[in-house]
Design a protein that fits this description.
The protein is α/β, with parallel strands linked by helices and 955 residues long. It folds into three domains: 392 residues, MFS general substrate transporter like domains (Growth Hormone, Chain: A), CATH 1.20.1250; 192 residues, Glycerol-3-phosphate (1)-acyltransferase; 181 residues, Rossmann fold. The chain contains 34 helices and 20 strands. Strands 1-7-6-2-5-3-4 form a seven-stranded mixed β-sheet, with helices on both faces. A seven-stranded mixed β-sheet has the order 9-8-17-16-18-19-20, sandwiched between helices. A four-stranded parallel β-sheet has the order 11-10-12-13. A hairpin with a 4-residue loop joins strand 8 and strand 9. Helix 3 packs antiparallel against helix 13, helix 9 packs antiparallel against helix 10 and helix 22 packs parallel to helix 31. The two termini are 42 Å apart. The relative contact order is 0.06.
Length: 955
Amino acid sequence: MPDLGSATGGRRRMAAPSHLAGRGFRSFLATQFLGAFNDNAFKLVVTYFALSVLAPGKDSAYIATAGMLFMLPFVLFSSYAGYLADRFSKTQVMVWSKVAEIVIMGLGALALWLGSLNGLLAILFLMATQSAFFSPAKYGFLPEYLGDEALSRGNGQVQLWTFVSVILGTAAGGLLYPLFEGSLQWAGWEFTGIAVLGTLASLYIGRVPAAGSGVPFSLNSFGSTVATVREMHRDRPLFLCLLGNAFFWFCGALFQMNIQIYGKRHMALSEMRSSILLAALALGIGIGSALAGRWSGRKVEFGLVPLGAMGLGSFAIGLAFSYRSYGMTLVVVHLLGLSAGLYALPLNAFLQQRSPADSKGRMLAANNVVTFSGMIVASGVLWVCLNVLRISPAMLFLVMGLASFAVIAYIIRLLPDVLLRFVLWLGTHTIYRVRILGEENLPHHGGALLVCNHVSYADGALLQACSQRFIRHVIEKSWYQRPLFRPFLRLLGTVPVPTEEGPKAILQALRQASEYLRQGELVCLFAEGSITRTGNLLGFSRGLELVMADVEVPIIPIYLDRVWGSIFSFEGGRVLRKLPARFPYPVTVVVGKPLPPPTSAWDARSAVAELSVEAFRLRGNQQDLLSTRFFQQARRTPSRFCMADSSGRELSFGRACVGAMALSRALRRACPSEEMVGVLLPSSVGSALANVALTMLGKCPVNLNYTASRDAQQRAVEKCDIQHVITSRQFLEKLGAEAAPNQIFLEDLVPTVTRWDRASARVGFWLFPHRLLRRLYREDRRRTVQSTATVLFSSGSTGDPKGAMLSHANIHANIEGLYQALDLRAADRLLGVLPFFHSFGLTGTLWLPLTSGLGVVYHPNPLDFKAVGDLAARYRPTMFAATPTFLMGYLRKCEREQFSSLRYVVVGAEKLKERLAQAFLEKFGVEPLEGYGCTELSPIVAVNRPDVVRPGHRH
């Protein structure tokens, strides 16, 4: 299997991302833009001039001759151009070429003034000669200036702006010819002026040093080219890429020339409408190239080549039947160009990357000779098909489309790994949205052992999507032998490990992996030994150390983040038997810095664990605000049960969101300016809505500890500069506390919610996007997930209460921790008795259910044991969070049937109270997993009912 990503020689230069936006690269784009504009505008003016003076039978012959003359210099002089590009600075060679363009355009103006068709053919030959000397320096400049990581994106930008200039040049040619039809020399002088501008832009192109090639100059252009092609033939991937590029330009030249005659003969198009067809083709190539550069990321993505090739065949066939409709033909031509961009860009980028630094110019020049030879052949094929075989232009598109599919089949037979690469790329860009960080740590050549966490059955494909090189995976033999996977795993060159055949067989397989490392290949080892059933990182086996025995290659730690929860993971205890929570599913792949060869399994696991921390920190850039997440959840499931409390009030997600939005308008009038607002309320529907409403306003709700002393509460108010505290008269009476002047009572606040507040909340919830609602509700748009969401205070028992400022990202992290520990389901209901001033009460019983679509039932007093039991019997919760202190009361006052619906009981397992917790679990039929007692899972114990837990499934 060829390794399409390993380097063959020369030096590799890391590029700064700023090069893509720097003046040197922008000047290069401007130079290329102006040169391509001149070429296409001038050629089109000459073509229309010839079509206007030649008889209908001779026009196609002239076009074919002009096309051949424009391509012939690339065959005759490319070896000389390659020598100059390797001998001198490629930047300097481009400047010399642009100076020559000024002279050639001046001669072109003279030929247009004389109206000499032969003279114009000579000028086309000279233009092509100038382009032949410019091309190797241009394409050799890109990898030297940009480096490997920005090469695909840089090529994408070059191709996009090149074909935009083709469009404008084509349009300009169509406009200039009728404008200066009687005095075309004026158009020639305009082309000369553009050449001067291009030369001035070339003076600011980024400087690259001369490659310093020692190859002597040879007058034998043909012999030099043959020698270079033979040298490329020894590098099979490079040679196959050369042939693929030649086939593309053969088809491209044939398509472009045939479109002009196709429009004239089949559709009777004017020059302007025919120019629009060519513009649509060029725009498609530019957009396709830009998409290919973006989708390739920091590597050359060969998975796009089959996609583009299939598009070329399909849309070429479409042109055979679309000529009856100009609009349909325009669309098909555009899609044909887009497919061409997807096909060609990876091949061009790979040729630039793979060619050795000291002979890059020669190899790119040889590529020009081969490709333009194919284009010359295309001119001959066009003449034979249209004038000798009398094939219509439409039928020629049909023949070329069918031939393209035949070539695709041959490529797949020759290189089946390219098809596999396409399948992997397609899967990881449809099912998943992959974000790669640290991609520069993956080596472009040489062996390396990739050590990664194992979260799902798609992990191998996700890793392959991150690397330009193919990766050999070490997998269990039982999976390798499955008929569904075996063909793909064989193409990937996986190393099956026969775990059931004894230590000797296992050691032999690991030694095979070591041998691949010595041969300079990438090998991936999922050192955990199996897929995680909890989403957490497991221990690493010593197989890693056995593979690395006597092998001097680096170890690359990799962490796959956010894969837990995808359809290929064991989240929910099911694989493939669940719908994805999001589509496409976001995944982050973090590649760490290489570790030295003698690295233990423990140190490798520590490196992967450190990457997990970094990956989780990066989630903050992609997370939403808590209020946004609640709004989105409510819009998805408006009729689902959201919350209730012991007062009997029940709300669906839609009603809860509308109620919070309406309440927020009243709160904005009551406390318009302060950033932090106190909340002195027990766990209830009213308290939950108050917290959500304040968060929607961009304010920070501070839930005050009503079990603390009055002085401690006052100190918390002073530290946060709280001007108003939302509370309830009824609640204050139960506390035996006196009202204060800065308090806002819910009993007074709710009546201030007007009909307009409720109506606008309903309309906004059902019709408006959340971003618009944030503006309408005048929420601070500067808020991010790093903004403070709340402040939690200690009780003050050891002095002044201490406040912890939690951001939206902090609370998201806590919620994610609960996801990792609990098997949450849409039908779950949480019994919430912990107050919101408690860390778990705020995260687990307020924001977890609101942002996850779970139902929650509140009761203000966790010590009201009988009432809590009655509430559990009524709402049938599946999850319950409490402290061991409360368990004795529930144990005495509640019956087994009241808590029989529980799947989880989350308790803090203090050693002195472990027996009490165990007694509670046994009474209510919720038993700990076999082999894992409360002590082993402290400080938090997540205990499942045995009837919903499979053996070995540890939470």
